[in-house]
Every structure is written in C-alpha cells, then in structure tokens.
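Appendix B: complex inputs.
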Amino acid sequence: MIQVRALSKLYGKKSVVEDVTVDIQPRKITSFIGPNGAGKSTLLSMVSRLLDSDTGEVLIDQSDVKKMKSNEFAKKVSILKQSNYMNVRLTIRELVSFGRFPYSKGRLTEEDERIVDQSLEYMHLTDMQNSFLDELSGGQRQRAFIAMVIAQDTEYILLDEPLNNLDMKHSVQIMKILRRLVDELGKTVVIVLHDINFASVYSDRIVAMKDGKVVKDGPTEEIIESSALKEIYDMDIPIQKMDGCRICVYFSSN
Amino acid sequence: MRNSVKLAILALIAAGACAIYLFHDLNGSYGYALPKRTIKVLGMVLTGVTIAYATVVFQTITHNKILTPSIMGLDSLYMLLQTLIIFFLGSGHMIIVNKQVNFLLSVVIMIVFALLLYKFLFKKGGQPIYFLLLVGIIVGTFFSSISTFFQVLIDPNEFQIVQDKMFASFNNINSDLVWLAIALVSLVMIYAWRFLKYLDVLSLGRDTAINLGVPYDSIVKKMLVIVAIFISISTGLVGPITFFGLIVANLSYQFFKTYKHTILITGAILMSVIALVGGQWVVERVFTFSTTLSVIINFIGGVYFIYLLLKERKAA
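Resulting structure:
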C-alpha cells in the first residue's frame, strides 16, 4: 500500500500541495481528478521521488520512500510523466528493453528478453517493435512507453495524464489496458486524469484535489455525484446513467 | 554495417595514422626521432581520449549536443592563470619555464575551481543543471575579461609567451608529463567504468532515468567531476582545445546512431586520435609548421558548428 502522510510542497511561499494525507488501496485503479493547478501532478511526482517534498512522508509497503535505494524503488514503483522528451533515437524494442534496467543494468538476460517480448505483445506492439519512436503517432508512442513500464514489472504504476493528446479510440484502448493490468496482473495503478468520465467509467477509487488539498476521497460512486462534483469543480454537473456507467454531462452546465 | 565493424575500421585507421606519423621519413633515426615522435603521439592520443570522453559525457548530462565542457569556464581559468603568472612573475619564472610545475599547478587549480563551483551549486540541492552552465558562462566571461585586461598591459615580448599558451600545441609535450597524465587518466577511467551504464539511461531524460532506478543527482555530480578532471588534464597538457570535442562527439553520434555510450565514447575517441595524429602529420609535412593544428581544428570546428546549428534549427 502507498501511504501519503501530511505531504507538503512549497514553491517560494506558495504551497502547491498542502498537508495531503491519503492511502492508495492495492490492486485498484485510483484516479486523481481536480481542476488545473490543484497539485495532482506535483503529488504524483513526490510519491515517485521525482520531486523532493518539503514536509511529510510517503510510505510504500511501510518503508519511507526517501530512505529506499534507487534501484530497489525502481523495482517496486514506476512512473510515466506527460512529456517524454528524449535526446536519442530509439526503436520501440530498445525503449521497452530499458524497462529491464533496474534488474539487468543494461545486460539483458534471456529472462529479460522474454519479459520484453511479453510486454510488447501485451501492448500489441510486436509487429512494429523495430520502428523508431519518432516515426510513431502519439497513441503508439504512449503505448510504447506503457510497454516499458510493464517490462519494469513493478507492483505500483503511476501515470501522469496518460491520455493527454490522444484521440477517443486510443484513450479507450489505454484505459482498457490499465484495467487489465489491475484485473489480470494484480497491479496497483494510480493515474492523473482530466476527463472525469474516464475516471468514472474505469477507476475503482477517486481522489479529488483542489488548491493543493484533498477534498474528496472514496469509491467512484461516491465521488461521481452532483453534490460532490459541485464542491470540486464549482459547476453543476448532472449525472446520467447509461449501461451501468455514470456519465457526467458537463458540457452545457453553469 | 554493424557498429562493431565500424569501430574496427576506425581503430585500424587510427593505428595506421599513428604508424605513419611515427615511421614516415624516419631515415633510421630510431634513437632520436622515434622516441620524440612517440611522446607526441601519446600526448595526442591522451588529448583525444580525454576530450572525446569528457564531451560525450557532458552532452549526455546536459541533454544538449552543441555544448562543450568549455562552457564551465575551465579554459578561461587556464588562460587567466597563465596570464597572471607571466604578468606578475615574468615569463622567465620557474612556473612558466618548468613544464611539470606549470602542469600540476594548472590542473590542481582548475579541478579545485570546478569542485568549489559544484559544491556551491549543489549545496542547495534541486538546482537544474542549466543553472550551473549559466554560472559557468558568467564566470568564464569574467575570467576572459580579466585576462584581456592584463594582456593589454603586459610587455609585448611577454605577450608573445601568453599568446603561445592560447592555442593548443603538440609541438613541445613534455615526456614526464605524458606518463603522469596517462596514469591519472587511466585511474579515473577505471573508477568511472561502472557508471558508464547509467549514461545510456540518462539520455532518456531525468524523469525516466530516476524511474529506472538511476541515482540521478549523485551520478551527475560524479560525472561532472570526471569531466572537469579530464578537461583540466588535457588543457594543462596542450592548451585549450575543448572545441575539438564538439566535432568528434557529433561525428560519433551521426556515424553510430546508437544510444550505447560504450560505443559512442569509443568511436569519438578513435575519431579524435585520427583527427589529431593525422592532422598533426599534415601540419608538419604539408604545411611544414606554417600553421598549427589548433587553428585548423578551430576553423573546421567552427564550420561544423554552424552546420549543426542550422540542422538543429530545421529539426525544431
């Protein structure tokens, strides 16, 4: 389990994340939602030690993130950020092979090659594994990066807005894969989302943030609800039930 | 063509260049000319190794393929040091005349300066690397300005000696220094060997590198110290020549098209050996010393640099 305890981050005097305490349940998809600038990405960066926190602590399976060795941490938690700028030209397979770095330090064993094959297969990338990343569409690129994270084979997978710039088809494809990672492989997925309908349809739990604080935290049904959403977004958002999904119809609300 | 084949071909050409330089027109002077040439070749190989290594590592750390480590101001510091010594103590002073003392003094001061700079910058923690580069540029400009100030005041005859130091030269490499430098560089390379694997991951960017378990801050710090040591050694040995690294590093990227630093660094090293030894041979035999190698390098390097800028601009 990931436990966030009284975590804060200040930029100058402005606090972006303020005294956040939240537990991430294992083997579930937990979505972080909230308006722009609510501190969702900053929180995720601190949990994944890309960013140092100013106060508070993050515990992963009871051990303090700051005291864990980099390599051990990389076998437990993986993070995928929004932008993945790279200085080098890589094929999909080379990128996915990097996912094995915490285990093999660059010298792939047969076991590593097998896991890379599986990850490519899982993301339907086997046919184009030798294409270069800069020749791919946004959706394919994103899938390649997720394949790398799968090859890293961590219990916890953190994703910062993985649906950014993707069309509907690819967004659905990626959310379905995340769902499978949880249901079939027993991973714990934490994801920052902007589209609350994706959060509603695919996640088990939702944590809502606003102004650096957690305002709501609970099972999806409790959060995707007009009064709760009003508190988070300051909008009246009617909810429609369709085929068992709760859809927020926010396009023409006040 | 596979990369190992390419490396083998480069190694052959490099060995050939060294052989031609050593044995061409030797006229049986095994006792006099050969040892002298050997020391020169060793000096050039050593310069090639340090410059190529330092530049590739530096560019990976900074995620920028048109930077050279000279941006940290080490070359300017070297020039300032030489100018000040000649200005205050005169060109006849032991520190200028005795190459060993000069070398050791320059190298120690440059390394101490780099360490102080890092210490000061990394103390706060979380400073982006670009901050370091910015401070490097400012400090470097400051050093150059002071050097120029003293060079204007200096006696014209003494200025000749200063000017001599401004350009890298392989014509009077001291043999004791070469062995000392080779020992130093070998030690550092053995120490750095185990960090090479992290460089491949560093080129994926900071976030991905941390995600994959690279202890980012500590690796970057160590690599920057190694870069500073290498640049100091090569500058102390032959003079400022860091611009050269830009050419060989980029040629290596274009030629090998890989992310593996063992290949990129080896390739860049072989290319610099070919360029330095081959270039020096041309300077000696074709131009008969009417120009120096570093002038040619700066000319070709400048043209290549403009080409790179235009190419990057198109890509962006």
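The radius of gyration of chain B is 20 Å.
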